[in-house]
Amino acid sequence: MEYKLGSLYYDNEIVEPDLLMMNEVIEHLDYVDIAMVNVFEYIKPKNIIMTTPNRDYNRIWGIPEGKVRFYDHRFEFNSKEFVDFASTL
Asked: Are the beta carbons of 49 and 26 closer than 8 angstroms?
């Protein structure tokens, strides 16, 4: 059975995997806080690798301040914001 929690789908038969990889996912979610609660309370990965675009590099790509790389991004963290976010998990 597949469930949708905080704009994030998961299979309830996959619990406590050794590794959960979230490669450029969170910036597309409307409710990141709810998704993270569900990841850690229901899926319970032993390890997690999470990536997201780093806003610090947008200027290198010619993206103006205040704009995001992709129209579907709800946000983009800079380095400090990501560290702050990850430390709350």
From this structure: no
